[in-house]
Amino acid sequence: MHEISLVQGLLDQLHTIARENNTSKVLKVTMLIGPLSGVVVESFQFGFDILSRQDDLVRDAELVMVIPEVSYRCSGCGHREVTSGERPVQCARCSDRILIAETGDDLILQQVEME
Question: By CB atoms within 10 Å of each CB, which of 15, 51, 57, 89 scores lowest?
């Protein structure tokens, strides 16, 4: 489960941000996790829950995960289609079956609330 190492990297990043801002407590962490990022959201939450219990900085922090829509571009006509569900089977405009994902593979620390 590589999500544990991703959470550990997040915690390291939060410690750096806390030091830079002279704070000792993180209240809320907002992560953008694209559906094509390869991250299992439930496993990321589990890892955060486990590792944050052992860390005074983030012990009571809330983890908010934002799952964005995915944008696909048709290789035939260039039409863009945005979906929050399954990958489209074909282009809605020209019926081409080669659709290229342009977004959705992000894993971004979007916001941190500290005190």
Answer: 89
In angstroms, the CA 52 to CA 34 distance is 22
CA angle 55, 21, 112 (to 5 degrees): 60
Whether the CB-CB separation of 91 and 79 falls below 8 Å is answered with: yes
Q: What's the pTM value of the predicted model, to 2 decimals?
A: 0.89
12, amino acid identity: D
- Amino acid code (one letter) for 10: L
3-class DSSP assignment, residue 87:
coil
Burial track 3-14 (b if 16+ CB lie within 10 A, e otherwise): beebbeebbeeb
- Beta-carbon contacts of 113 under 8 Å, excluding residues fewer than 6 positions away, are 26, 27, 28, 29
Question: What is the spatial distance between Cα 41 and Cα 44, in angstroms, rounded to a whole number?
Answer: 5
Tokens of 97: 């079956």
**Contacting residues for 17 by C-beta, under 8 A, at least 6 apart:** 112, 114
